[in-house]
Amino acid sequence: MNQIVLGIDPGLTRCGFGVISRRSSREVSFVKVGVIQSSSKMELTERIASIGSAVAKLLDDSKPDQVAIERVFAQQNMHTVMGVAQISGVVVYLCHERKIPVTFYTPTEVKAAVTGSGRANKSQVTNMVMKILKLKTMPKPADAADALAIAITAAWRGGNEILDKSKNTVETAAQQKWRTAISASKKL
After folding, report:
1. Domain that holds residue 140
2. Element (H, E) at 103
3. Does residue 182 contact residue 50 with C-beta atoms inside 8 Å?
4. Closest CA relative to residue 22, chosen from 9, 31, 35, 10
5. Residues in CB range of 39: below 8 A, 6 or more apart
6. Which residues are known to be catalytic?
7. Number of domains in the chain
8. Could you state, in chain order, the average pLDDT of each consecutive group of 10 residues for the chain (188 residues)?
9. Chain centroid to CA 112: how far?
10. What is the reported pLDDT for 172?
11. How many whole angstroms from its chain centre is CA 68?
12. How big is the CA angle at 172 (ends 166 and 177), to the nearest 5 degrees?
């Protein structure tokens, strides 16, 4: 049975999306890719609503079984982090309304899943995405290629069950750090 996975690279100016189909544990195929954009000249609420409406349509049209979102673990530019967080929140809400499971992956986890190295650069990730999905042309802009990499990560690693200690799975260093950060935040 095919499973449809939607990867989201959230952003307020450009929100990348990539849809793939998973046929077996590691066999994936390309469905579609793109970017939802909003102008910095628009009011913030209008930008968020515009992206939210487009994501809602994407969810309704592609009917994913799972959605994966890139989680920004740390970044210097607070303005960018806020935009990513706002759009991530909208996507999570829309998925919750549709009862679609959501998983989050750090950039390091995505790089490691797709290339084998959490330190891979963008061109290495894009080249592997093209190879894995048998694409003849590079998805552009980078947000679109990143979204496909996020979807591949989710298809290969599964959902939240990868963090289930009872299933004897091995966490990456990034997953261990994330689990520790989440546990610490719950104690506040």
Report:
1. 3-186
2. strand 102-105
3. no
4. 31
5. 47
6. 9, 70, 143
7. 1
8. 95 96 90 97 97 98 98 73 93 98 95 93 95 94 95 85 40 58 59
9. 14
10. 55
11. 4
12. 90
Q: CB–CB of 49/28 below 8 Å?
A: no
Instruction: Return the H-helix or E-strand segment holding 93.
Output: helix 78-97
Q: Report angle CA 25, 64, 71 to the nearest 5 degrees.
A: 80
Omega prior to 141 cis, within 30 of 0: yes
At 179, the amino acid letter reads: R
Output the pTM of the full model: 0.84
The two tokens of residue 17 are 């999306």
Query: Which tokens go with 104?
Result: 């989050």
Distance (Å) of CA 111 to CA 73, 100, 133, 180: 14, 24, 16, 21
Query: From CA 22, how far away is CA 31, in angstroms rounded?
Result: 10
Residue with tokens 């042309």: 137
Tell me the C-alpha distance between 9 and 166, whole Å. 30
CATH number of the domain bearing residue 81? 3.30.420.10
pLDDT given at position 79? 76
Helix (H, G, I), strand (E, B) or coil at 9: strand
- How much is the pLDDT for 10? 96
